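Hi Y.,

Following your request, here is the sequence exactly as I used it, all 478 residues.
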Amino acid sequence: MKDGTTGIGGRRIAGFLMLAASLMGCGKSPSPWSPPEIRLDVRETSLGQARGGIMLQSLVASPRSQHVAYMAKVDAKALVVVDNVNTAAYDDLAAGMLVFSPDSRRLAWGAMRDKNWYVVVNGIEGRPYEGLARGTLAFSADSNHLFYAATRAGKWLVNADNAEGPLCDEVAALCVSPDSAHVGYAVRSGPEWFVVLDGVAGKRYDGISVDGIYFSPDSKRVAYAARRSGKWVAVVNGVEGPQYEGIGLASIAFSPDSTRLAYSAAIGDGQCVVLDGKEGPGYDGVAAPVVFSPDSKRAAYVAKRGEKWVVVVDGREGPKCDGIIQGTLSFSPDSKRVAYGLVRGQTGAVMVDGVEGNRHEVVGTYTFAFSPDSKHTAYGAKDKGKAFVVADGVKGPAFDEIVGRSLLFTQDSKHVAYVAKRGPKLVMVVDRAESPEYDGFLGAPLLVGDDASTLHAIVLRGSEFLRVEVRLVGSAAK
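Below is the corresponding structure, written out as tokens. Let me know if you'd prefer a different format.
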């Protein structure tokens, strides 16, 4: 399983912003997809014109597409623009450090003036530092707390709500628990590494895995991979598991109910999955991470033996194939169904509940879409140069591309929505109804609104940012 796509003979099966899902379910053919006819009531609100000197890679949208912010260069200075309003100018800004709080009420960024670096929150500067650690700026889930790592006098520290922790040689992998009550990070002191959880240092090791620290969904358990004397262990709430030659990068996964833990480990010349403390069968490779069902009772993962790939569901191997399309392995919301994209030869298809669907020239990576009621599936594909979405076996209108990570069902499971490209323009599509054309979508391409008949997005038309609210209007969209 290669990063991004899986292909045979040098051909990439799933390129360019495509999606994957399925069309068959539970061994039965569903009724043909026939959603109620609707039209789109599109309302646009201007968020201002893009400034000259905009740093395109800095563009961020707030949760639920309410605000837009970006960094810009103006008259040899750098500043942040929020909804067309300039903030104070600085000598420089920290790349990758422009973050909205989950409730969208706060915006934080890193800025430098007179050789001092600050974290600025809604225009208010924090303490001055020699430097800021990129990738560590994080709000808590409840938006009430802010954390980041910084340097002073050649040493590192963690700032939590403007209160400083002790100085150390290096800080990495800062993580906040889902309930916002805990913070953990990895620290290096001399040659040794250890995890600090809520200010308390854990056991010392030769190294901590770069993928960092994992909190369980209920925030009661914390796990990470650590190395001592050339061996790796998974550490859960301070308790070490068995020693292995290695633990898979980004492979640690808690179940939704927080009671189960899985990770991949190196054994001999191969790999296995360790689930609930028990080793599974050995394979030549395991693609992380393990996927748990929403009810936490089932588990699935991708593995390789020889030149063939399989999906292992509840300990049972599926049929061998030439590749598994990355990011498509999914359980339905009711946990009863499982689906994934696969490659055979030079074409792709989708397997749902053991039934392989129609073949296409391209089936894409990321995202698989089950409907909220678990009864329907949809995916993007491409044949003969035309891209389309297939919902329960029914092809939608043809486009040049289907934009990756945009495919979803409405909350009532009656409609499928996505972003598509026709020529240089992009449109929002719901079933067969289209929005006006735009030049770009910012952040998550499409977000479900507060009810089953509303969608939100931030778009770009020319140089103007717009917040778009799309309401589905029709006999069944109320």
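The longest strand covers residues 38-49.

Thanks again,
Q.
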